[in-house]
Every structure is written in structure tokens, then in C-alpha cells.
Amino acid sequence: MCVRTLLPRSVVAAWLMLVPADLPAQSQVQDSLFAPALGRSMRYVVALPAGHDTSRSWPGIILLHGFSGLETDWSTFTPLTEMVAGLPLVVVMPEGNSAWYVNSTTVPGEQYEDYIMRDLRRTIARRYGVDTTRLSIGGLSMGGYGALTLALRHPRMFQFVAPFSSSLDIPMDIPLLEQHGRQGMRPELERAFGPTLSAAWTAHDPFTLASSIDTAGAPYFYIGTGIQDEFRERLSYHRRFIEVLRQRGFRYEYHESPGRHNWPYWSTALRGALRAWSERTGSDHQGVR
User: Fold this and answer.
1) Cα distances (angstroms) measured from residue 145 to each of 166, 238, 279
2) pLDDT > 70: what percent of the chain?
3) Average of per-residue pLDDT across 142-153
4) Is the CB of residue 149 less than 8 Å from the CB of residue 212?
């Protein structure tokens, strides 16, 4: 679940003071696309680097929001523009509703995986010059789950994957929702994955995917979670998942750090991920502070 906590002005001000004033600024655009996979228009926010034009190609990162979140969350609750100032990077934040970024097994018209992997990718390449061979993906909570499973299901489509506080228990632990105090999520989960254990559950289980895919050509994973996360089972799930990555020989780094299931933690985690992205891709990271 995404806890949409508005940051205190003092916290935001402190972040802004860390960013040099002479760095080139990004601009933000609110846009929409018609998604054939969903049969309707979907909103998204794009942060464009200074000097952006479509005469050249740009690396991009898709940032996914959490359960009950909005496409504006990342740009509203973090100092995103300041964090990426100076980076040659297009940041795309799509609307995802609470659909878990999968193709629904119960509603034919809700094909969210196809929307992200086909409709959104094509649109940002055409409109904003995003080079889809240099595409990364990240997200928080439900969006962390989405980033992780989309990358594992399409391992050659992304360079870098940054999931934070990921819902690694979904979908296999849907029967345990009441035990974990999340029974209110059941309607959306069953709409996405179906009400009973099925092939669709295992096909979207991060542990099953990481245990079975070919690691050759897989992206680099930057995985993080807060050690004070309110979903207490999340830390143990992350440690189990990292062990799978280690045993399989994935390229990854894992960060457990002080933090809860909230925006102060996700802002810090994103800043670290952007630094790692810069180092891994050879991009200038003077703006990541």
C-alpha cells in the first residue's frame, strides 16, 4: 500500500538546499495517451531535462506509483525535479490505478502490462525521444512490485530496475491478507490475479520469476526497503528474495536502511538509485544530491 504523506515544508526546504542553484532545471509536462490495451486514455507526467529536444534520443526511466496512488505522486511528494537536475534523463510517471501493472485475468479490457510495455513505451519514444533500448523502471510498494515483475517478465527490455518497499508477497500470499491487516486490498488483487491460486498467480510471482528466467542479459537491480516498514513481513521477504538473486547470479545491489513505508524513505531511496543509475550508465550525475 502507498502511504501518501505530505512532507513538511522544512524537510522539502532542506532537500532543496542540497541542490546547487546553477544546475540546469528540468521541466514537467502533464500528458495523456490513448492506450489500446485499456481502451481509454491514461494520464502521465514527464520530467524533461534542460535542453530537451527530439532531434536526439534520451535514456528514460518509468516510475510507478503505489496502491491507491496517482501519476502525480512522485513529482508531488519528492523533490524529483531537483534530484534529476543536470541528468540527461527523461522521467515518465504513468497512471496505474490499483491494478498491479498486470494483465487482468478477470477483466479482458484491463491489460495493464501491455499498456506499460507496449502503449506507453511507444508513446514516450515518439513524443519525447526516449530511446527504449536505454530504458529503466522503478517504483514504490505496488509500483515496486510492478517494476520488478515487468523487468523479470521482460528481462531484455530494461537496463536498470529500482524497486522500493516492494510488495514481494503478492500474489502468492493473497490468502494471508487478513492475517497481515490488508483485507481491504482483496477486491483489486482478485480483479488482477483471480480469486484462487492459478497459473496467473505463479506467472506473476517475483520469486518464481527470479528462480526461472535466464539471467544472461537481465538488467541491473537496485533494490531497497526501510527497516521500520509498517508491513513487518516485508523485510524478511526482501532478504529471501535477495538470496534468490544471489544464488542465480543476477547483477544487483541491495540496501536496507532506516525508513518506514512513506515518502521520506522513498525520496532517499530514489536519490540513491539515481546515483547508481548514473554510475552504471556512465551518465553525468552532478545533479543527484
Assistant:
1) 5, 11, 24
2) 88
3) 98
4) no
Phi, psi of 137 (to 5 degrees): -150, 145
C-alpha cell at 5: 504523506
**Checking DSSP bridges between strand 130-140 and strand 90-94, what pairing results, if any?**
unpaired
DSSP 234-257: HHHHHHHHHHHHHHHT--EEEEEE
CA atoms within 13 A on the CB side of 99: 22
**Domain with 227 in it: what CATH number?**
3.40.50.1820
Cα separation of 57 and 43, whole Å? 23
Query: Does any domain span residue 15?
Result: no
DSSP string, 25-53: PPEEEEEEEEETTTTEEEEEEEEE-TT--
Tell me if 236 is assigned to some domain.
Answer: yes
Residues 6+ apart with CB under 8 A from 140: 2, 64, 65, 66, 163, 164, 165, 266
Residue 7 covered by a domain: no
**Please, which pLDDT band fits residue 184 given cuts at 50, 70 and 90?**
confident
Q: What is the DSSP string of 3-29?
A: --PPPPHHHHHHHHHTS-TTSPPPEEE
Query: Does residue 251 carry a pLDDT above 70?
Result: yes
* The pLDDT value given to residue 82: 93
The share of the chain scoring above pLDDT 90, in percent, equals 80
Q: Domain count of the chain?
A: 1
Does the residue 17 lie in any domain?
no
**Domain that residue 237 falls in:** 23-164+191-281
Mean pLDDT, to the nearest integer, of 90-117? 97
Q: For residue 288, count CB atoms less than 10 angstroms from its CB and return exposed for 0-12, middle for 13-18, buried for 19 or more.
A: buried
- Supply the pLDDT for residue 283: 73
Cell 514481494 maps to which residue?
A: 168
